[in-house]
Amino acid sequence: MKMAALSSSSGSSNVPLDDEYDDIERETTSASTEDADDEQPPERSQVVKKARLRRASFSAAVAEPAWNKIRGRNDSDARLAGPDGRVGGGQKPKDGTEFFLTLLSESLDGSKVFVAGSVLSLSAWSVLCALFSGWLAGLANDGVPRAERWLEHIQECSSAIGVIGTLFVFTLVFRFNQCYDRWWQAHLHWGDMISKCLDLAIMNRRWIAHRALGDKLSRWIIVYAYASKALLRGSSLGAADDVDGPGLVDRGILSREELDAVCDSPCWQPYFAIEMIRAVLVEAHKVPGGRGITFDETNKIHGQTFRCFDGVIKGMTALVGDNIRTRSSGLPASYDAITIMSFYVFFGLAAFVWSAGIGWMTPVIVATASFLTVLLIVMGSNLVDPFGFDKVDIPMEEFCETIEAQVHAIDERSRSGRYR
To answer: What is the pTM of this model?
Structure first.
């Protein structure tokens, strides 16, 4: 019932309906004869004044609707927000070195115990291996045949350690590539979301003639972005820890009743927003005479416009599913277990074999190599979930603000009439 009420009501957009505009146009047209006729009765004079006041208030609403007055950013920033979510070109996107250092810092901060414990334990083991090799070398120098054979056998295992190391490196690189691919795919999905939201906003302002329905569609495009962000972070608009839902209400993008309807719906909130977008389009198609859709029913393009809208909306729906799949289909726990086990097995055996040839250099080599290797492991783990709050995760806040700012800019450009 709440969804039906929302989809059928245009009054929640704070902008007068087109029928009201027509009524005022007729009133003010008749009122314009006031100067030509000085003998109007007082009752007619009052009607004229009221008509002019209503027309002035409606003109202000057309120029700047109530839901468009408060933005997430100020006017200049809203116009300059770039596709990466940054504003005005003041901040450059992170280059490869900066991103790597940020990822490295985030990985170390979140896995200090694991990194330190792994490196220290392997270093301690390599010290024991060096002591054992030194003891064997001492026995061999004293002419103990068994000690000489032990040293020979240990040194002959170098080729086997090389094979194990090759398999381990392949496993490590494959895992890191899979983690990075998830992070990259998530960025691509959000880039497509921005593109399709703005494409729908432009189609809305060019092909929907009904002003109130156009405003309503713009609002739900913005809600779609914020609802997607909340869903991918395991939350929802209106949740106890959510600030976006109340913010949308404060900025006039959602009314309190609409937010309650979104929260009460059992479906995923991005799909709720898409359903409301479809409901607005159905309403627009029901308005006859070219007052809902720019092309009237007699125009051949009238039926094709719905296909254009539907194609973009299908893409938005698919992107929600793609992001959910990326978030839920993490690396199997068994794969992580195999990687960690291979890490300890390789460096444990390698320290034992290397100690027979390089002696006390073994702890230095093992500590350095294991530290770099464990960094790759934790950096990959940091990229598995790209929708979190880490610095290397997707800046979904900036992306949502960019969508909101650009939708506002498209609306303002359409209302100004300067680029018709």
So the answer is: 0.73
